[in-house]
Amino acid sequence: MRKNSVKNIRINGEVQKVLAETIRGEIKDPRISPLTSVVSVEVSPDLKTCKAWISVLGNEEAQKETLAGLKSATGYIKNRLAKTVNLRNTPEITFVLDQSIAYGVNMSHKIDEVMSKQEQKEEKEEENE
């Protein structure tokens, strides 16, 4: 199975859905933030490993705590994945913190800041005319 085959893409989507449901509704670890989302999942073509990119809305400490909670719950999550998704092998899950949403929010704030400065500059130029 190639990396970007239709089967691999379908497996990635199914694993992402199960991970999101499990993290959101079944894990009771207080370290895991309720504002945790599974951004992306990449299962290797041999179904042995899985990288799950996790986004946590909050400060850096909340992100570290959530990652630690998820790592400690890996066994339960893998068991739940094995029961839900019928795969030949149940992949070993590695959680990776995804910063893309925070990066996007930061960029949006910077763009808004530049736009407001530009508007203020234009208003001053109109007043001086």
Calculate the terminal CA-CA distance, rounded to whole Å. 68 Å
CATH class value of the largest domain: Alpha Beta
Q: Can you give the helix content as a percent range?
A: 55-70%
Rg result: 21 Å
The chain-level structural class is alpha+beta
- How would you write the strand order of the largest sheet? 1-2-3
- What is the CATH architecture assignment of the largest domain? 2-Layer Sandwich
The count of DSSP E runs of length 2 or more, i.e. the number of strands, is: 3
CATH topology of the largest domain: GMP Synthetase, Chain A, domain 3
Tally the helices: what do you get?
4
CATH homologous superfamily assignment of the largest domain: K homology (KH) domain
Mean pLDDT: 87
- Globally, the shape reads elongated
Q: Provide the domain count.
A: 2
Strand content: 15-25%
Largest sheet: 3 strands, mixed
Characterization of the model:
By secondary structure, the chain is of the alpha+beta class. The chain has two domains: 6-98, GMP Synthetase, Chain A, domain 3; 100-129. The protein is built from four helices and three strands. It has a three-stranded mixed β-sheet. Strand 1 and strand 2 (49-56) form a beta hairpin. Helix 1 (6-25) crosses helix 3 (74-84). It is elongated and about 75 Å long.
Explain briefly what this protein structure is:
By secondary structure, the protein is an alpha+beta fold. The chain is built from four helices and three strands; from the N terminus they run αββααβα. The chain has two domains: 93 residues, GMP Synthetase, Chain A, domain 3 (2-Layer Sandwich); 30 residues.
